[in-house]
Design a protein that fits this description.
95 residues; Alpha-Beta Plaits; four-stranded antiparallel β-sheet; globular; 4 strands
């Protein structure tokens, strides 16, 4: 069953965050993942206005998503995000 990683990001330093953005695609691809959404314009239809950056990733399984997130490769990319943004990551199985 496919798994999706949903990320909310509050960027505080775009210059540093762009360095993180350069590294993440290769780590995601290595674990068979792909971007479904990577930022872009958002519109809030209901509830509190969403102002954070939203990223959605798709992996072939929840196990692959976990492997990616806890990998050495992504760990190196995460270091670039430190001090540049705060984020919330969740993974969910879906069709």
């Amino acid at each position: 069953m496919s798994a999706y990683v949903i990320v909310k990001v509050k960027v505080t330093d775009w210059d540093r965050y762009k360095e993180y953005m350069k590294l993440t695609p290769a780590t995601i691809e290595k674990f068979g993942g792909k971007f479904i959404v990577r930022g872009g314009q958002t519109v809030t239809f209901e509830g509190p206005e969403m102002t954070e950056r939203i990223v959605i990733l798709e992996f072939s399984s929840l196990e692959k998503a976990k492997e990616w997130y806890h990998s050495k490769e992504y760990g190196e990319a995460k270091k670039k995000r430190e001090g540049a943004a705060t984020a919330s990551f969740i993974a969910i199985e879906g069709i």
